[in-house]
Amino acid sequence: MKNITFTNTKNTSDLHNPIPAKNHIPAWYKELDSYIGKVKRPDGEGGTTSSAKRCMPLFDSIIAGYLILSPADIFVSQKDGQPWFEWANFDLIDFHPVEQAPNHPNNTGHIAYPKWNNPWSVKTPKGYSCLFTAPKHRDNVFTILDGIVDTDIYSLPVNFPFVLNDISFEGLIPAGTPIAQVIPFKRDSFQMNLGTESNYGELEKLSLRLSTRFFDRYKNLFWQKKEYR
What we know:
4 helices, Deoxyuridine 5'-Triphosphate Nucleotidohydrolase, Chain A, 4-stranded antiparallel beta sheet, alpha+beta, 2 domains, 5-stranded antiparallel beta sheet, single chain
């Protein structure tokens, strides 16, 4: 198992250290029944009553990597038609001129991009980088702008420009809110190819194997467990 090291560079509170994403499953997913109507059965049309809770790709994206959490409260109000940010402690928010990316598809009308000043350094083994992305399948009021950093070589804290999903939002973003999901991965070089008839034949075999089961087909036949501790 590889090590990933998070180092607190700004003496922020230990109450909100980074955590494995598996330790902070969103409430909607926890509360979702595994089967529609709580009945495990074929649906009469070749499928089953399985809900999204049985979808392993969705689950894997929720638990992938680690979560960086806000170390203090942020309060958002409105001033002159734009969000106004106040924070309880630490130098949590900075700003980038919107001119750096005026046409970014996530820009909903901000005149400046707010930025989370992340106190955490991330260090990975040689050959491993990190995707810093918005926490997956979570109902946050903001979305960070994703980025990839070669954290084996560059281990200084990575800050996170973000946008409010609703620019008119007002309210509290409490301490402990997931800010970013950190997913380490091994760097490699790839060459794109288009599939041939032999590739299509392999897909037919996989499809046939998949069709032999009603429930948890991908999970039981193909899924590989991922571990983030």
